[in-house]
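FORM 7B: Structural annotation worksheet

SECTION A. Query
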Amino acid sequence: MSYVAVVTVAGSIITSVIGGARAKKEAQKQRELQKKAILANLTSQEKLKYEELKILGEVERTKILANSMLSYRTALQEQNTKRLNDTWIYVAGSGLGVSLIYGVSLVAKNSMESK
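SECTION B. Predicted structure
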């Protein structure tokens, strides 16, 4: 009987050692899988942050472009208003000049006819 007990104890020890080795390998595999999952998650978060920063950069660039276009449009409107005012001054001056020349020519014509 003691021989049976020794064999049973030895078998139990061997089974425990083999089971422990298998459990150790399985635990190591699980840790590797967890590490890979964490790295994949971190990589995904990094890519998302990069895309977010890229989009924010595009938004800021679009805002700058819109503000530039708005200020350009405002400057063009101001220049057009100045040109329009200058045009009316030119037209009024030209009209006065032509009417002055016409008036002088009529006065000269009347003065020649009356002599």
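SECTION C. Observations
Residues 2-114 form the longest helix (113 residues). The mean pLDDT is 86.

SECTION D. Sign-off
Analyst initials: ____
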